[in-house]
Amino acid sequence: MGRVKKIIDLSLVIEPVPGPEHQLLQIRYEGHKETVEYMTKRFQCSRDDLPGGLGWANEYVTIGTHVGTHIDAPWHYHPVSEGRKAKTIDEVPVDWFYGDGVVIDMRHKKPGELITVEDLKKALDSISYRIKPFDIVLIMTGADKLWGSVDYWTKFPGMGRESTLWLCEQGVKVMGIDAAGWDRPFWAMVEEFKKTGDRSVIWGAHFAGIEKEYCQIEKLTNLDLLPPYGFKVACFPIKIKGGSAGWVRPVAIVEE
Question: pTM above the 0.85 mark?
Answer without folding.
Answer: yes
